[in-house]
Design a protein that fits this description.
Helices cover 63% and strands 0% of the residues. The protein is mainly alpha-helical. The longest helix has 21 residues. It contains 3 helices and no strands.
């Protein structure tokens, strides 16, 4: 949960949102300049990973079933 799939998908989701916002004028939606606040993106990724990790700690059977270690 700390590396790999979840952090990567979270970062890709942020990039996708920026991409879509930059193309919004093609759909008749004006947004102005789109900027990416990388510290905020990284903080969001950390929060998502933390929520997944804490959820797994509350349900240890999920980790044992998937042979995952929590660290």
């Amino acid at each position: 949960m700390n590396v790999g799939c979840t952090p990567t998908k979270t970062m890709v989701a942020s990039a996708r949102m920026a991409y879509q916002a930059r193309r919004s004028d093609e759909y008749g939606i004006g947004t102005g300049d789109v900027t990416v606040d990388m510290p905020a993106v990284i903080e969001r990724k950390a929060q998502v990973v933390s929520s997944f990790r804490h959820g797994s700690e509350k349900k240890p059977y999920l980790c044992s079933w998937n042979r995952a270690d929590i660290w």
